Amino acid sequence: MDESLFYIAGGALVAVTLILSLVGMRSGRFPSGNVLAAGLVVVFLLVAATAVGAVELAQHEQGEKLEEANTAADVTEAEDTAAGQDAGAAPEPTPGGGSGEGASADEGGKVFVAAGCGSCHTVASLGSDAQGTIGPNLDTVLAGQDDAFIEESIVDPDAVVAEGFPGGTMPATYGSELSPKEIDALVAFLSQSAGS
Ligand code: HEC
Predict the structure, then answer these.
(1) Sign (positive/negative) of CA torsion 47, 52, 53, 59?
(2) What is the pLDDT of residues 161-177, one digit of tens each?
(3) Any residues with CB less than 8 A from the CB of 160 and at least 6 apart, and which?
(4) Model confidence at 90, in pLDDT bands (50, 70, 90)?
(5) Given a cut of 90, is residue 25 above it in pLDDT?
(6) Which of 170, 179, 182, 183 to mutate to test the pocket of ligand 1 (most atoms within 8 A of CB)?
(7) In this predicted structure, what is the pLDDT of residue 74?
C-alpha cells in the first residue's frame, strides 16, 4: 500500500465532511433522507479506507525496520563465519576457553601490539603498530606455517631460528609472561593475518 493513497483517502474524508456540514447548514431540508444516506455511505467508505491504509502503512514500516535489522544481523554473521574460518578456529568462540579453538584473532592482534612484538616484527595488517625490522617480517616467514610452528616460535623462539636473523634476540620469556589464552589468541591472529 502506497503512503500517498493513505493521505489521499484522509484528505477526501476531510473534504466530504466539510461539504456535508456546509450542505447541512445551507439546506433547511437537511438532513433529508437521500443526502444523509449517501453522505453516510461515503463517509463510512472513506473511514474504512483510511483505517485500512493506516494499518497497512504501519505494517509496511515495521516490515522495513525488520528487514534492516535482518540485513545487519546477516552481515555480522557472515563476518563472524569468515573470521572463524580464516583463523582455523570454531565459528562460535568459547570465551575463557584455554584451548586454541575459539581464540579470537582480533584479541591476538591486540596482544601482539601490547606485548611489543611490533617493535621487532612487521605485520602489514597492524599498520604502524607493527613495523619492526629486528626480527623477520611475519607476513613473509609465517606463510604456510601451521599453528604448532607459530606457537613454538613464540614460546621457544630459539627452537627454530629464522634464516638471516640472530638467534637469542627474541625474548624467550613469552611462554611464562603471556597467559595460555593470550598465546592462543596470538597464534590465531598470526595464522590468519600474517602470511596471507
Ligand atoms: C627484541 C625483538 C623481538 C621481539 C620483541 C619479538 N621478536 Fe619474534 N623474533 C625476533 C627475531 C630476531 C626472530 C628471528 C630469530 C628466531 O627465529 O628466533 C624472531 C622470530 C619470531 C618468529 C618465528 C619466525 C620464523 O620463521 O622462525 C615468530 C613467529 C615471532 N618471532 C613472533 C613474535 C611474537 C608473537 C612476539 C611478541 C609476543 C615477538 N616475536 C617478539 C625478534 C623479536
Answers:
(1) positive
(2) 999 999 999 999 999 99
(3) 149, 152, 153
(4) very low
(5) no
(6) 170
(7) 61
Please say whether the beta carbons of 31 and 61 come within 8 A. no
pLDDT of amino acid 86: 52
Task: Kindly give the distance from the C-alpha atom of residue 145 to the centroid of ligand 1, in angstroms, as a whole number.
Answer: 14
Residues written for the chain: 196
Q: Which of 133, 140, 153 for a ligand 1 pocket mutation test, highest count of atoms within 8 Å of Cβ?
A: 153
CB 173 within 8 A of CB 181: no
State whether the beta carbon of 121 lies less than 6 angstroms from ligand 1: yes
Please state, in angstroms and rounded to a whole number, the distance separating the CA atoms of residues 192 and 196.
7
C-alpha cell at 15: 473534504
> Does the structure show a pLDDT above 90 at 180?
yes
**What contacts 107, CB < 8 A, 6 or more positions away?**
182, 185, 188, 189
Q: Are 129 and 122 contacting, i.e. CB atoms less than 8 angstroms apart?
A: no
